[in-house]
Amino acid sequence: MSIKIAPSILTADFSNLGALINKLESGGADDIHLDIMDGKFVPNLTFGPLIAASLREVTSFPLDVHLMVEAPERYFSAFAKAGVKSLTIHSETCQHLYRSVQLIKEMGLKAGVALNPATPLSVLEYIIQDLDLVLIMTVNPGWGGQEFIPAMNRKIRELREMLIDSGSSADLQVDGGINSRTIKAAVDCGANSLVIGSALLKEQDLTKAIKDYRSLAEEALVGSWWHRAYQGE
Ligand SMILES: O=C(CO)[C@H](O)[C@H](O)COP(=O)(O)O
């Protein structure tokens, strides 16, 4: 199981997005995390498939889309056409979560499910083996720059136990408030895919910042309780 650094562009200067993406790519990030918000499921409003398609023109970097929208199925095909790698949907927004996951996979994309802080892990019990990624919201979704909710570390640990027990090598992604104070505990508990927004984008030297975050995370991974379960992969 490898560490993945997925910068979120939520707090970026949108007038200069192409240049930022190129810097993140050459700086060694693994994915770009795109936060799609509809002003309904979450109060904030961001952007849609057209921006993803424009970004696809300037980079071949994997685009990791986090849909914080109601009835997300309406947008699957537009994002697939835009050339994104993965779609992560919120369990709270889907009446038929399993069907939505299958639809994403039928389009040839990786499928992820995100859970708000108060949503129990039990919603994943019967679909966990079908997922490529599970995203634990470690803040209330809507804005960048919030504080990590400490109780989420126990949830991360319990989810990693579920993934190991079900033989899944899905990524366990954490999103919200990840910075140099919180990253080690999150990885130690079970996270391997780290969405980092404001803490990363405020840095002048993105290459160094990505390298430093990766080192912190890899150090925590090697010393973690769960690392051994994936050795030999
Ligand atoms: O999904 C999100 C908010 O809903 C963002 O991806 C998340 O908050 C990342 O930003 P930061 O690292 O600044 O917390």
UniProtKB/TrEMBL annotation:
Pfam families hit by this protein: Ribul_P_3_epim
Domain of life where this protein originates: Bacteria
Residues that coordinate or bind a divalent metal cation: 33, 35, 66, 175
Cross-referenced CDD domains: RPE
GO molecular function: D-ribulose-phosphate 3-epimerase activity; metal ion binding
Record's catalysed reaction(s): D-ribulose 5-phosphate = D-xylulose 5-phosphate
Reported cofactor(s): Co(2+); Zn(2+); a divalent metal cation; Mn(2+)
UniProtKB keywords: Carbohydrate metabolism, Cobalt, Isomerase, Manganese, Metal-binding, Zinc
Note on how the cofactor is bound: Binds 1 divalent metal cation per subunit.
GO-annotated biological processes: pentose catabolic process; pentose-phosphate shunt
Active site residues according to the UniProt entry: 35 (proton acceptor), 175 (proton donor)
Pathway assigned in UniProt: Carbohydrate degradation
The protein's Enzyme Commission number: 5.1.3.1
Residues reported in the UniProt entry to bind substrate: 8, 66, 142-145, 175-177, 197-198
NCBIfam families noted in UniProt: PRK05581.1-4, rpe
Function: Catalyzes the reversible epimerization of D-ribulose 5-phosphate to D-xylulose 5-phosphate.
Protein name in UniProt: Ribulose-phosphate 3-epimerase
Species the sequence originates in: Syntrophaceticus schinkii
Gene this chain is encoded by: rpe
